[in-house]
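ok so heres the complex, two chains, lmk if somethin looks off
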Amino acid sequence: MFRIVCAKWGDYQDTNITQLFNNVKEKSSIPFTFECFTEFSDEFNQYQYQKDHCHYWDQGGLPHANKLQLFKLDEKFDKDDVILYLDLDVVVTGDIAYFFNLPTKQPYIIFNHWWYDQNEDWKRQYNIAHCPLYNSSVMLWKPGQNRPIYNFVKKYTEQVFFTYRGIDTFMFHTFGPYCKKPRSNHFDYFSDGIITSERLHGKATGIIHSYEGIPKK
Amino acid sequence: MNIDYAKRLEKVLNGVWWHYPFMIEHVRDQISVTEYCIQRWWADKINLKEKSVNILNSGFGFYSIPFAKERGAVEINTYDMDPMTKEIIMGSNHDLCNIVFDHEDFKQADVWINTSCEHNYPMGDIIPKGTMCIMSSNNLRKRGHINPVNSLVEFKEQLDLSNLIDMDAINFDFEDDEGKRKYEQYFVMGIK
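and the predicted structre for the whole thing:
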């Protein structure tokens, strides 16, 4: 079963969900189920505070930690299902069948190929926990494949929430190419150009265009 | 100072010149007079003869590695999260790791040193019990400092040592694009 999921909390409205569903339906050549997660466990709530005396990106608190809960909430799905997660502000511009034809030996996340090539920025800022090369606006996985990430957060809850403000930086540092085995290289990456970014590319030329909170024109 | 020190300096500068010119600001901070004073503080107080040492958040250990050797250390292990450090560092057994999450994999060592505690989750939960440690942090608010402390007392509480041997505070000046400011660097030496 091909499952498209999204998650709603904070300022998003039900109309955003309907809009995304209609957008996906219009662009898909294959059958799929669509589900928006709106109920999340409160297990991390007490850790979601910001350290006011620190710079914005050093305040910790993982404000979007609900997204990581999806890696546990997927247990209700069948093990052979394939899940495509979409942020509520992405725009689908091509056929999403592409994603369900990818090999699923590893889960996928967006890799900032553009930024990787401009390596000065991310290398210079790696040690200050900024400039992640990961973007979780779109992810693909089979149920259970990302459970190690959820389990890691459960094991080191206080440390993770103290250290990181962005879940993308957390995953890049802790499950990315430069961390210790067996966590390293947890993800495979969507090919360059499949998912474009308003912030980096400015226009949609792939299958999905990500806005990452930037207002749509 | 000996030929090994000169070789390290040459290798570091060559590496930065050819491969990481954008890291020059970071390297400048690591070889600054302030950094020298911070590392000198512990180097003047401890005898490391026949001891093994873990240096956490080493940067590239520009002063800490030669000081540890000068004080007699027989084994020096350095640990950093930043992948660029691995390319630049020399003179220690270097391990690329996140000191908060990977400390269970650290090599056993007689002495643990972290002079950049402001960059990570409080060390009290990380240092093994009964271990000699030298820790330093500060009250400087700047990008990347996820754990600045307000006082020496607060820092001491974070470390939760069983036996305090020495502690100190030194004033330094700092300047970046947010302007000039003074800050205090805190030092604590003791047994976890």
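quick notes: The longest helix of chain A spans residues 14-27. thats all i got rn
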